[in-house]
Amino acid sequence: MLTAARERFAADGYERATIRAIAKEAGIDPSMVMRYFGNKEGLFVAASAIDLRVPDLTTVPLEEVGARLVRHFVERWERDKILTGMLRVGVTNEAGSERMRAIFAEQIRPVLTAVCPVPEEARTRSALVASQILGMALCRYILCLPPAVEMSRDELVAWLAPTVQRYLTNRQP
User: Fold this and answer.
1) I need a labelling partner for 114 at 20 to 30 A (CA). Which of 62, 63, 95, 167 fits?
2) Contact assessment for residue 153 and residue 53, using Cβ atoms and an 8 Å cutoff
3) Is 2-47 assigned to CATH 1.10.10.60?
4) What is the pTM of this model?
């Protein structure tokens, strides 16, 4: 059921995905979806439970954290279509936006905070890192802007890593 929901939300987005279509794809009665998840939003929350497997950056040489983080996310985007679906839903629906904020707070911010040189700036720096990574993901995997799509993984990392590195580790002037 969750696999069918993930695929349908990724393909159709939150608004167009229906309980009926998800149930049909899963080979079950729609009432079973309602019984276990209550409504479409409950199903979406369960289906969008994603472990980003963000690397522990405290074990990475400080001058490499930006590149390591960018490479990790580019590789995740390229092999996990659920992330693309989550981003698509996150920019078009409040339930999706809330889910993205929760994933950010639970999985990304703590990892980035661990390498932040100024703890009081961790939230701001984390948001700036997210803006770079999610912005590129939007351009490359959702909007499919030709220059973003045409870059190799290494080129993408080379372009993004210095900015992410600066957000993570540089002291403010």
Assistant:
1) 95
2) no
3) yes
4) 0.83
- Other Cβ atoms within 10 Å of 125 Cβ, number: 23
> Looking up tokens 């349908």, which residue turns up?
8
Contacts of 83 (CB under 8 A, 6+ apart): 50, 76, 77, 137, 141
- Is residue 44 a contact partner of residue 96, using CB atoms and an 8 Å limit? yes
Residues of the chain with CATH 1.10.10.60: 2-47
What end-to-end distance do the CA atoms of the chain give, in Å? Answer: 51
Contacting residues for 155 by C-beta, under 8 A, at least 6 apart: none
